[in-house]
Amino acid sequence: MPDYTKPLPVITQDSEPYWSAAKAHEFRMQRCTDCGKFRFPPTHACWYCLSTNTEWAELSGRGTVWSFTVMHQPYYKGFTDELPYAVLVVELEEGPRIASNIVDCKREDIRIGMPVQVVFDDVTPEVTLPKFRPV
Amino acid sequence: MVQADDRAIAFKNQVAVVGIGTTNHYGTYNEMGAYGMAQEAFKNALDDCGLTQDDIDGLIVGTGTGEPTAYDDMARILGVHPRVAYPYSNGGRLFGPSVMLMASLVASGQCDNVAFVYTNNARTTRVKFGGQDEGASAIHPAYGFTSPGANAAIEFRRYLHEFNQDREKLAAIAIGQRKSAALNDMAIFRDRPLTFEDYVNARYIAEPLRLNDYCIINDGAIVFILSRADRAKSLKKPPVYIRAASQQGGWSIYHWQDGFEYEPYSRVAKRVYGAADVTPKDVDALFWYDAFAPFLLYYLEGFGFCGRGEALDFIQGGRIELGGELPVNTSGGHLSETYLQGRAIMVEAVRQIRGECGPRQVPNAQIVQFIGTAPNASSFILSKD
Question: Best mutation site among B128, B134, B145, B260 for testing chain A: the one with the most A CBs within 10 Å?
């Protein structure tokens, strides 16, 4: 997909396992193996207890829409043709909140509290973005 | 984690705002540059209080918005030789904390006269507050998610949902402040009246927020000078006392925490009202960090001006306009006067206490309050006596 013009995520040492999992269509986040808490976005150490003992636990991929906005202003060239488009904050079943886009749903139909499920969008051969669809 | 809630600083009778200076106008300064604007505002601040360059023994310099500014270069071009000098973020949520820091330098005896120098040429340098390199949060641009306003929009939609409120009640803020701006020669939107029709017909930026719920982006500079209260009385203008200041950090992922920052705001409220020995009922005018209109709702609730979920009703009927029970941002604020990240709001607060606001003067203003935005919630109270 050489014509993909939207910004791509910056993959760091801390976030590489997240993006590798997504590429394999698995939804994984860091969970501290000392205090048991999930955290996102990825960091070197747990921000609750500062432990570096971490596992990349697979999530259910289920959550609900905590809130959302519809972007009308062009900020990124690759999104200009899609204006206006929705950005969601999803509260995952395991606790973390994550910003993403919705698929298979008109933006007029998005509601707070709506149950959603993760899907994987292979936007380039290297990068897969977790997105959400209504359940 | 529990931290003591009595840790506001009571500066009463120790520290006063003695000088304020702005650029001669707000808008664009494409030729003067960030440092030139600072020189203009500094000269005006010295003229305002009668102090000289040699009197400034403390200097705090904003790091610039748009063009970066360095504290050492700034000291040199302002011709000052302060004992104490620091660079300080221009960031808006750090404005309240900067006043607390300056007041602490004076109250602790480190400095007699501290100048804060803030300069911003965001308009000339085309700062967009969105779409830029987002550093550690660089996941979001992949989803087209960017800008402080989009975060504010997400939080406001959640607020409307939780309290089952009518979105259009928010109009009262932009419309009310625009009315005040019409009485302010410095206001960028002085000649742009805003009706309810205009408001609802304006375009969305990040839904549910529309154009007039957003601050302006413009150039300008502000300098204010704080001095020892015992020496302030002999200066040109009546002193404006800093009664108390407090802040509370509560960092999380943007504005996606539950509760609309009620917890940090209510803690700052308890501390600052306690230290200043006032209550919300005593506040003659409220000055708030209005990057985005909905922030006022969370301040009003967190500081106890009204109950939780009631702020959209509280602001109706002219209550927050000039002549109302609680006038807010009487200059027009960030929404209608100038967006200088809290610093111009301070200028207006000081002028209200001095009685210098002419047609927009709040009669007999004795006590005014500033509230700055979470996640570094802050507040200070200024008074005439």
Answer: B145
